[in-house]
From TrEMBL:
Belongs to the class-I pyridoxal-phosphate-dependent aminotransferase family. Its EC number is 2.6.1.1. GO terms for cellular component: cytosol. It is an enzyme of class 2 (transferase). This is Aspartate aminotransferase. Keywords: Aminotransferase, Pyridoxal phosphate, Transferase. In eukaryotes there are cytoplasmic, mitochondrial and chloroplastic isozymes. It comes from the Eukaryota. Residues 61-433 form the Aminotransferase class I/classII large domain. GO terms for biological process: aspartate biosynthetic process.
Amino acid sequence: MSASSNTSRSKSSSLKSRLDKITAHMAPVPPSTFTEAVVPLAPEDPLFGLMAAYRKDTFEKKVDLGIGAYRDNNAKPWVLPVVKKADDIISKDPDLNHEYLPIAGLPQFTSASQKLVLGADSPAIKEGRVTSLQTISGTGACHLGGLFLSKFYSPSKTVYLSNPTWANHNQIMSNVHLKTAQYPYFSASTRGLDFDGMISALSDAPSGSIILLHACAHNPTGVDPTKEQWKQIAAVMRERNLFPFFDTAYQGFASGDLAKDAWSIRYFVEQGFELLIAQSYAKNFGLYGERAGCFHFVAGPSASAQEATKRIGSQLAILQRSEISNPPAYGARIASLVLNDKDLFALWEENLREMSGRIIDMRKALQSKLEELKTPGTWNHITEQIGMFSFTGLTEKQVLKIRADAHVYMTKNGRISMAGLNTNNVDYVAQAIDKVVRETS
């Protein structure tokens, strides 16, 4: 046996002896002060908690008015016919593969998304003032935009959110270290827009503040400004040098008209604003689980705008790389195929009109039934609001009672998803609302 073999064996034996001694005298691992004392139990998400309670309920006539997803007249998820067609085309494509997409996403998808939200003839697109990245739906777009502002936007680190707003806006912005403030939006007395309060708050906001705006079908109230009010909002924001950040989750789904639902964004771009857009395809394509979305930066018109847009795009790509590296492909392929095919696009518009039309019909039916029952109060706000959600005006006490008595589920602030109503349950819901209003008034 060689000397080197003897040496190796001796070292191995010595190491084993040392490990045996350590193991023999090893004390139990103490509880981690980090996990025991530092990390608290997070509260349950209210909406997902509501969904869990609904699923556990065995009552035959229970109604889910909390879900933020479209349902057909049989309360079932609806796969859009155009999505089925696109899926069939993609599945038969002999060149289909599962390689990574580029960091910025599927180019055909991002370019079509620009045209959808800004208009195919948008000067901003033609002048190279738009840079876009595919994101994890609208949530990911909001996050990417917030992260970008947190790192690069120097005039302010405060983002103003409407009161109320989609609850996750607060979480997203605070997680990227932006401060949040509020501007009044919903008037409990009129159940409409508190326009004076909104304008007053924007007028008092510090110069350079970031203002998050819902492009259409405001979540959770269903209350939108009129075109004239949007023009006044833009005028105040220009005067105060405020930075617009649009969240558009319902284009085409709100009214059935893609251009109408994008009007506010296009107007701000036309007025020369530099702005951000978070765009979702969850609602208008029914691609909830595929998480298809897009983020856009639009520069204002200037001689250096195109160069600035390139630099900003490069920084957004670095942020994207560190967050998700490459976006998922399937949902983007579905949307891209539809957006870039004339016939499929026309079918998609039909599907949008069908969804938005059914929701509008349910608004009319609910208001009509409540008025027929002579339910105390006024109910015209149900049809004056738009999109998936409606603020009913019910109090938290009434919401909890209607859940306990009638098994009708809605969020504690009285918000209902109009998609949860159908011809089979709208009378039952109206009667439950009537009963709880009379008993608690």
